[in-house]
Every structure is written in C-alpha cells, then in structure tokens.
Amino acid sequence: LYAVFLECMKHLNPKQYEIYIMKTFKTFSEKEISEILNVKEGTIKSNFYRARENVRNCVEHNYGDISDALR
User: Is the dihedral of CA 58, 24, 30, 36 positive or negative?
Assistant: First the structure.
C-alpha cells in the first residue's frame, strides 16, 4: 500500500505535491503554508483537498477500497 501511495503522489501537480507534503508530513498549518508560499489560505485549502482526493482515488484505483486500512 505504501508503494502505491508514493507512486500516486508522483501524479500530483507540483503545487499540490508541495502543499500535500508540507501539510501531511511536515505538519505545517494552512496559515503557515500560506505565508511560506505567499498565497491565500483558501488556495492552500483547495489545493490540499484536491491533492488528498487525487491520491485517494489513485490508491483506490490501484489497490481497491482502502477505508478499512485507514482506520
């Protein structure tokens, strides 16, 4: 599952990838990311949401339903 997850992250556009990494793995807040990247907080939220959905859809396409694995 982890390998599929990493492979799916490669398909994000560069901005989504950067935001996804900063929020998910480096645990920056949306406000901190907004200040670092000099973009509106709403842009961070929408890009993170899209990135998360894209990764989830990709993983489910390649691995099947993952909802039980994430609990």
Answer: negative
